[in-house]
Amino acid sequence: PILYSYFRSSCSWRVRIALALKGISYDLVPVNLIKDGGQQFSAEFKALNPMQQVPALKIDGITLSQSLAIINYLEETHPNPRLLPQDPKKRAQVRMIADHIVSGIQPLQNLSVLKQMGEKKMEWAQNCITSGFQALEQILQHTAGRYCVGDEVSMADLCLVPQVANAERFKVDMGPYPTITRINKSLLELEAFKISHPSRQPDTPAELRA
């Protein structure tokens, strides 16, 4: 497999965690979203992913984009360890939390939107994340065990950790979100989350390395 990734991309990080958890080795091709006006806009990369976004994963003779589609494919082809619970209610909760983050928070504060916000980008990102986290904190109080849903790492957790990293980068006050903070701390202790961390990627700038 070949993963096209950017060290700081939260969507790429979700997929790196899934690959690490499932023990799938891969080659990483960095796509710098800032340099050269954004390498994702090259003709070469557009041919790979017409949406001109990372991640993209070449695997088993196909190319997939969209992090949840990739994670679902990995789940179906490499079922262990599972990232979706067997219980239908818990599985629905995992998908709900994942969607809450990947549809309701992350796209509103991603690079392409922030570019258009000019000087207000920090304030905009903080507002988007804060309103999303207020809802998420409430949801997690009903679903969480050690992790987002019960005590097993799931697809929801793969979405949570990169989003908390975004929140910290945009200086969001995490005080009001004790459940999110606690779960994030537990997850960051796991090896798969450590090795996939933005501070430990081949394309991480020297000053941001762990």
UniProtKB/TrEMBL annotation:
Ranges for domain GST N-terminal: 1-82
Family: Belongs to the GST superfamily. Zeta family.
Record-linked InterPro entries: Glutathione-S-Trfase_C-like, Glutathione-S-Trfase_C_sf, Glutathione_S-Trfase, Glutathione_S-Trfase_N, GST_C, GST_Zeta, GST_Zeta_C, GST_Zeta_N
EC number: 2.5.1.18, 5.2.1.2
CDD domains: GST_C_Zeta, GST_N_Zeta
Cofactor requirement: glutathione
Keywords assigned: Cytoplasm, Isomerase, Phenylalanine catabolism, Transferase, Tyrosine catabolism
Pathways involved: Amino-acid degradation; L-phenylalanine degradation; acetoacetate and fumarate from L-phenylalanine: step 5/6
Family annotation (NCBIfam families): maiA (TIGR01262)
The protein's name in its UniProt record: Maleylacetoacetate isomerase
Known catalytic reactions: 4-maleylacetoacetate = 4-fumarylacetoacetate; RX + glutathione = an S-substituted glutathione + a halide anion + H(+)
GO CC aspect terms: mitochondrion
Organism: Certhia brachydactyla (short-toed tree-creeper)
Entry GO MF terms: glutathione transferase activity; maleylacetoacetate isomerase activity
The keyword Nucleus appears for this protein: no
Subcellular location: Cytoplasm
